[in-house]
Amino acid sequence: MVVHRAEEASLGKIAMEKARSRWAQSSWNLQRLGIKLIAQRTWESMTKDDLTGRSAQLAYYFFFSLFPGLVAASAVLGMVATSGRAFSDRLIDYLATVIPPAAFDIVLSTFNQTTHASSGGKVVVGLLVALWSASAGTSAIQDALNSVHKVKERRPFWKARLEAVLLTIFMAILFTMALTVLLGGDIVAGYLSHIVNLPLFFRVLTRMLTWPIAFAISAVAFALVYYVAPDVEHAEWRWITPGATIGIVLWLLVSTGLRIYLHFFNSYSVTYGSLGAVIVLLTWFYLSGLAVLMGAEINMVIEDLAARQGERGAKKEGEKVPQSENA
């Protein structure tokens, strides 16, 4: 019995040591690298990599990817008519909380116009056009992330574009899942409260849980972009990274901040007239692209600092293969 307990204690100690070792090399253990140093290096890299210029490029592609996507979405919703109406209404409500009001008006107008003339052919054509247009935006993300990692694109054109198309599809699936969680959470909570008369506490809890779940799914989508888009190799897949988490938080902050600014200082319509809504939409795309690239920059700086400390599996900026594979 004493020997058995001693073995259990030994195994527990070994497990604790392994857990400490994993945490010591975890990308989330920022203290080992120095949070101040990470922030300083990130700011320097952002300036060197011209992230503001890259974000403007992404905004251009995001803008031209939006409306083909709306055509495809509205075609699908138009075909399911009544059953899709409640879902589309909730979708519009959630988009209204993210997209600035002035820009949302033009998005909603386009969405309504295309929804009324939907057919099976438009679903196919709309999806194909949306996929190709969106993959062009993903290709721009590939170029931007290569710039962040200080590497040159070596993949053949067909391979890079195929990866962009596949990444676009998976991104669409993940963000659709996140939206479904947000939309479905409210619907499920309302349905259960109507059927089994759930207490108010459980209804509120169900609605509250949808947001962290949707946030986690979105973080995985960001991590997927950072993993697949640049022409570099990674030692292992990480479901949620510091850069992905910070990127999403920044995106939510800039979206909210832009809405607050436009609420109190709505000068776009005065300066740009009828083009004000388009300018607001482009500004939102620009800030969204900047948030995505800043998240990638943070991940790159963390990995570069880890590699300079001799951590196996990490790579310095400008390297395509982790150190463990270079050795």
UniProtKB/TrEMBL annotation:
The chain crosses the membrane at residues 58-79, 123-141, 162-189, 209-228, 240-262, 274-293. Its main location: membrane. InterPro entries: Virul_fac_BrkB. One of its GO terms (cellular component) is plasma membrane. Pfam families: Virul_fac_BrkB. It comes from the Bacteria. The keyword Ion transport does not apply. Keywords: Cell membrane, Membrane, Transmembrane, Transmembrane helix. It is a multi-pass membrane protein. It is found in: Cell membrane. PANTHER family: INNER MEMBRANE PROTEIN YHJD (PTHR30213), UPF0761 MEMBRANE PROTEIN YIHY (PTHR30213:SF0). This is Ribonuclease BN. It comes from Acidisarcina polymorpha.
